[in-house]
Structure formats: structure tokens, C-alpha cells
């Protein structure tokens, strides 16, 4: 009787690559087969994982190290398949990627040969994933056709995309879109891409609705070669004197490019996709040139261009390699020059008067952000700068107290797992003030929670004539060429540092009435904590509702009947009265009424 680890070699199961080839032959148009699933390995029952991460990494590393230098790739691949089949439970695909990413490759040529053998002959998803993880590091353009074929198998879609991202971003984007083909708008774009018709691609790209997510926006831009289309339209318009193409006007493509870039900068639930968009620099430059020539002054266009300028001034988009010739500053200046045209300036004033709430709020936001940009220093200014950034209310996000050091945003560069905390946390509390006593400050928390993916901490202390940021605590940032792997100690001139913190703490130009009222309530509770302690309560957080920026929300925490933490949300709607009066009324009510009686 054969040993258990040898039984996989005695079966007639074909390689997953051959399975993928059969799918490609069955669907010559290359459309995604939603019904197809790679044939599962039924030789052993599924069990709940028993191994921890450290044990998994040690076991897989011990298996891989000798095989990566084996001159006989076919024999090494067969040995690896038997060893992986014997690992119970099976190693997860993501774990394989992380483990292989951390391996030291002494002989890249042999490791590449093993990878290519695995992706073509692997009979299990685990063995193919090892090959894909190796090609993520060692892949070459000649590997793209094989990887695209493997991308037809749903179990391998994400490992294939990771491998292709390092070789051919457009091919990776097409597979991502095919994986999302259940969305009609992406299916139509995918069909145009398959036809290879630039006019059809441009038309379908412009038709994408504003409901697609940040990653879909980036992948659509990559798959359709957005920058090439913009530059092509720019060249055609420049040579012919026309402002568009026979199929879709250039202005529509420029406006859609602005929205796609805006969507990529979303920081609500994931790492900003703009960090993964390698064409970001050329895209922003094409947007600035196209806006100056082709866009008409509307509130929507104004908001999109303003968001782009805000992002380049202190957001994650500034982390791309802009070169040392002032390209980023030139792009910001070109965008601001468009916004400063008289016909554009009247847009936010006209649309902010007597219009529905959403339009009014967007116009008010545009005026606030434009004032902020007008008073910011040059992007190359040295030292510390705190910039409060509020996202376009049409697609709201958290208000961030962005920390810019020597012209570069700090938190997305060193953390990348969540936005920087808001001004209430960092500025109103005085947490960024430097004293002789070292103080640890949490600058950002992961989107999920600190307990899941961590948070970013720094210790701030005064050292003679300098303020020092040191003793950083944070998890490794997501894998990206734009992230700083080791955070250096930062030193600032103490006088300049103190002046900047005072300026940021006293600058309320970014706020709006409901947010200002919420901050005044928090300040009042900070001065009179007995207003809540008398009811056995404490303030969890205060701000404005995510879906209604005119609504104040206070989260009050207290012990329930069983002693567990219980929360009551107190919502105060905008009524047109001054923020100071609304805050005073709220504090008076807390002094006389138990918040538990305020309603649901």
C-alpha cells in the first residue's frame, strides 16, 4: 500500500493549467464562467486549521528552501506537490504568498524555473499558488499568457492578479474586471476591451456610474489605459483645434478621469487605491492640462478639480515619484488656476444660494477648501505642517488632521492601514503639544480596529531647542513601493513646531456649523465632566453624522443592567441657530435631564 503523501502522484488528476485551457477553449470569447469552479481535491476532508502562523511559516519554509535551488525543476515541483498534499490542514493561499514573499532567493534562475513548472503542472491550488507567489517576485513578460489562462479559475483569481501586478498591470486589471463581471457596467467595459476598439473603450469608460468602488475605479483606469486615452485626445485636439473626438467629447473623458482619481483616494474602508496606481503622476498632469482646455465651469467639475488639488497638496497622491523638478507643484498650480477663473469662482457662490441641502453643503465645502489651499505654504516647505482635510460631501469620508513633514504626508507613507485621526482627537485635546515629559500619541488606527490590524503611535518629547518624534509603534505597512519600511526619528525646531501647533489648534476655517457645535459641546464637557458623571455616563465620541453633515451626534457610554457597556446616540439636527447657542442648549439639557430619556 502506498504512503499517504504518495497517493496524489498515483491519481490521474490533470494539472489546473490544463483545466484552465479547457475553459478557454470552451469560451473562446474569454468571458468569465461564473459557473466554473476548479475541480476540488476530495482526497482528504476539510478540517479546521490547527497550525498557527509561526508553525505554518516554519514548515513551508523548510519544504521550499532546498527545492528552490534544485537544478531539476520538474523533480522539485513533483516533490513539492507531494509535501504540500501531506500538510494537513492545507496552507491558505494568502499565507503562501506572505511566506514566499519573505524568502531569500539564492538562485533566482532556478527558483523561476521551479515557479514556471509549478504553474503549468500543479495539480492542487496550493502548489500552483507557490509558483504564482514566486512569479510575483521573478515573473517576466513571457509568463503573462500562462497566468492569464490560470486566471480563468476562480480559486486562483487573486493569486494570479498579485503575480500579474508585478509584470503586466493591464492584464491584472482585465482579470479583476472579469472577476467582477456580475456588475453590468464593468461587463460592458470588459467587452469593449476585448474588442480592442479605443472608441468603444472610451465610451464605456465614460459611461461607468459613480457607484463603483475605489479598486474597480483603479482597475478600470489601468485596463482601459486612461492616461494614453487622455494624451491621445489631447494630441488630436491640439492638432485639429477641436475639443473632442468623433465618439465621446474630450471634456467627458477628462471629467471621468477626475472622478476616477477622486474615487481612488477614498480612505474609508481600505488603503487608498491611488497608492497602487502607477500612472497617477501622468494622470494628474493630464487632468490639469485637460481641465484648463476642455472642462466647463459646473459645481461638479469644480469639486472634482478641487479634490485633486487637495490630494496633491497633502494626501496620499503626493507620495508618488514626482521628480525633483516641481512637477507636483506645477500640477497643483494649474488646477488652482482653473478654479480661480472668474467664471469658475461664481459657480460655488451661485450654487450655494437657495439650493437643496446636498448642493448647498457641497458649495460651502468648496469655498472652505479653496480658502485653505490659498493660505497653504509651498508643497516643498520644510518642517511640520498640519492640514485638516475634509472630503467632498458627495462622497464623504473622515475628516483628517493630515501631518505633512517636509512636504510629504506622513501617515499614508508609514502606516497605510487607515486615515490619520481627526482634529478633535489630535488638536482639540492638545495631544500634539510637546512637553519635557515624553508622551505617546496615537496618530492613526486601522480601518477595522487596532485589535485587528494595529495603530500608529509615536512618542513626542521636547529636547532642548528641538521637538523629537521617536519610538514609533506600528505594524508593517501594506506591501508597496511607496511605503516607508522603517520610520526614522524626526526632529523639528521647537519654536517653529510650537507655532505650527498653535496655528493648527486655532484654525477653524475648515469646520462647518454642526461640526463647530459638536466641538463646543465636547469642550464644555471637558470643562464640566459632572454633566455626564452625574448620570453615570461618559462621552465616547462626538461629531457629525456620516450621512447627514448637518446633524450633530454624541455617543454616550454607560453600564447596562448586566454591567456591560451600553451606548446611546444623541442626535441634534441643524435648526439654523448659531453653533454657540446649540452647544449651550445641549449642555443645559445635560445638566437637567438624564440622557436615557432623550429617546431612541
Give a verbal description of the structure.
There is one protein chain. This protein is an alpha+beta fold. The chain is 50% helix and 11% strand. The protein is built from 27 helices and ten strands. The chain has helices spanning 7-10, 16-26, 53-67, 73-86, 93-101, 108-121, 125-138, 144-150, 157-165, 169-179, 184-195, 198-206, 214-223, 226-240, 250-264, 280-294, 299-314, 327-339, 342-350, 357-374, 411-414, 423-428, 450-453, 494-506, 513-527, 530-533, 579-592, and strands spanning 384-389, 400-405, 408-409, 439-445, 455-463, 466-473, 490-493, 537-544, 551-559, 565-573. It has a four-stranded antiparallel sheet with strand order 4-5-6-7. The longest helix has 18 residues, at 357-374. The protein is globular and about 80 Å long. Mean pLDDT is 87; it is low at 4-12, 30-45 and 243-247.
> What best-fitting shape do the alpha-carbon axes yield?
globular
The order of strands across the largest sheet is: 4-5-6-7
Helix content: 40-55%
Mean pLDDT: 87
- List unreliable stretches of 5+ residues: 4-12, 30-45, 243-247
**Rg from Cα:** 28 Å
Key attributes of the depicted protein:
600 residues, alpha+beta, 3-stranded antiparallel β-sheet, 27 helices, 10 strands
Write the layout of secondary structure elements.
Blueprint: H1 7-10, H2 16-26, H3 53-67, H4 73-86, H5 93-101, H6 108-121, H7 125-138, H8 144-150, H9 157-165, H10 169-179, H11 184-195, H12 198-206, H13 214-223, H14 226-240, H15 250-264, H16 280-294, H17 299-314, H18 327-339, H19 342-350, H20 357-374, E1 384-389, E2 400-405, E3 408-409, H21 411-414, H22 423-428, E4 439-445, H23 450-453, E5 455-463, E6 466-473, E7 490-493, H24 494-506, H25 513-527, H26 530-533, E8 537-544, E9 551-559, E10 565-573, H27 579-592
Antiparallel strand pairs: 1-2, 2-3, 4-5, 5-6, 6-7, 8-9, 9-10
Helix pairs in contact: 3-4, 3-5, 4-6, 5-7, 6-7, 7-9, 8-9, 9-10, 10-13, 11-12, 13-15, 14-15, 14-16, 15-16, 15-17, 16-18, 17-18, 17-20, 25-27
Amino acid at each position: 500500500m502506498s504512503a499517504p503523501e504518495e497517493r496524489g502522484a498515483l491519481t490521474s488528476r490533470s494539472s489546473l493549467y490544463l483545466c484552465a485551457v479547457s475553459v478557454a477553449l470552451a469560451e473562446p470569447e474569454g468571458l468569465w464562467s461564473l459557473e466554473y469552479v476548479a475541480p476540488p481535491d476530495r482526497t482528504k476532508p476539510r478540517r479546521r486549521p490547527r497550525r498557527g502562523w509561526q508553525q505554518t511559516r516554519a514548515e513551508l519554509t523548510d519544504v521550499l528552501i532546498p527545492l528552490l535551488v534544485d537544478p531539476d525543476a520538474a523533480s522539485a515541483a513533483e516533490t513539492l506537490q507531494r509535501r504540500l498534499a501531506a500538510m494537513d490542514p492545507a496552507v491558505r493561499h494568502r499565507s503562501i504568498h506572505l511566506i514566499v514573499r519573505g524568502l531569500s532567493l539564492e538562485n533566482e534562475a532556478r527558483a523561476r524555473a521551479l515557479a514556471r513548472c509549478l504553474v503549468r503542472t500543479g495539480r492542487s491550488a496550493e502548489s500552483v499558488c507557490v509558483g504564482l507567489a514566486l512569479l510575483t517576485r521573478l515573473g517576466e513578460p513571457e509568463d503573462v499568457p500562462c497566468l492569464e489562462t490560470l486566471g480563468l479559475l476562480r480559486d486562483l483569481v487573486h493569486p494570479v492578479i498579485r503575480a500579474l501586478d508585478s509584470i503586466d498591470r493591464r492584464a491584472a486589471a482585465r482579470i479583476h474586471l472579469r472577476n467582477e463581471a456580475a456588475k453590468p457596467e464593468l461587463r460592458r467595459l470588459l467587452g469593449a476591451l476585448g474588442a480592442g476598439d479605443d472608441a468603444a473603450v472610451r465610451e464605456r469608460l465614460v459611461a461607468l456610474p459613480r457607484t463603483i468602488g475605489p479598486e474597480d475605479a483603479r482597475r478600470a483606469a489601468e485596463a482601459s489605459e486612461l492616461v494614453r486615452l487622455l494624451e491621445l485626445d489631447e494630441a488630436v485636439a491640439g492638432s485639429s483645434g477641436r475639443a473632442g473626438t468623433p465618439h465621446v467629447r474630450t471634456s467627458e473623458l477628462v471629467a471621468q478621469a477626475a472622478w476616477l482619481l477622486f474615487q481612488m483616494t477614498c480612505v474609508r474602508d481600505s488603503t487608498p487605491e491611488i497608492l497602487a496606481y502607477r500612472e497617477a503622476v501622468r494622470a494628474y498632469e493630464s487632468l490639469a492640462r485637460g481641465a484648463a482646455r476642455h472642462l466647463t465651469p459646473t459645481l461638479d467639475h469644480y469639486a472634482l478639480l478641487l479634490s485633486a488639488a487637495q490630494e496633491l497638496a497633502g494626501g496620499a497622491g503626493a507620495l508618488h515619484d514626482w521628480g525633483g523638478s516641481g512637477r507636483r507643484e506645477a500640477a497643483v498650480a494649474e488646477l488652482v488656476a482653473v478654479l480661480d477663473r472668474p467664471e469658475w469662482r461664481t459657480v460655488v457662490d451661485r450654487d450655494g444660494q437657495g439650493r437643496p441641502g446636498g448642493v448647498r453643503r457641497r458649495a460651502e465645502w468648496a469655498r472652505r477648501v479653496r480658502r485653505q489651499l490659498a493660505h497653504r505654504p509651498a508643497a516643498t516647505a520644510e518642517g511640520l505642517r498640519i492640514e485638516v482635510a475634509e472630503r467632498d460631501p458627495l462622497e464623504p469620508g473622515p475628516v483628517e488632521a493630515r501631518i505633512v513633514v517636509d512636504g510629504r504626508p506622513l501617515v499614508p507613507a508609514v502606516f497605510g492601514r487607515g486615515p490619520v485621526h481627526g482634529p478633535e482627537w489630535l488638536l482639540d485635546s492638545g495631544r500634539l503639544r510637546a512637553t519635557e515629559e515624553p508622551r505617546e500619541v496615537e496618530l492613526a488606527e486601522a480601518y477595522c480596529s487596532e485589535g485587528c490590524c494595529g495603530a500608529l503611535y509615536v512618542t513626542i518629547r521636547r529636547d532642548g531647542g528641538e521637538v523629537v518624534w521617536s519610538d514609533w509603534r506600528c505594524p508593517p505597512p501594506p506591501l508597496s513601493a511607496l511605503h516607508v519600511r522603517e520610520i526614522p526619528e524626526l526632529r523639528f525646531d521647537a519654536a517653529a513646531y510650537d507655532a505650527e501647533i498653535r496655528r493648527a489648534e486655532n484654525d477653524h476655517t475648515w469646520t462647518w456649523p454642526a461640526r463647530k457645535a459638536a466641538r463646543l459641546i465636547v469642550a464644555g464637557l471637558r470643562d464640566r465632566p459632572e454633566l455626564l458623571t452625574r448620570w453615570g455616563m461618559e462621552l465616547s465620541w462626538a461629531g457629525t453624522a456620516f450621512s447627514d453633515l448637518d446633524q450633530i451626534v454624541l455617543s454616550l457610554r454607560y453600564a447596562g443592567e448586566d454591567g456591560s457597556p451600553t451606548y446611546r446616540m444623541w442626535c441634534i439636527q441643524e435648526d439654523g441657530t448659531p453653533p454657540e447657542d446649540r452647544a449651550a442648549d445641549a449642555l443645559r439639557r445635560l445638566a437637567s435631564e438624564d440622557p436615557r430619556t432623550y429617546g431612541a
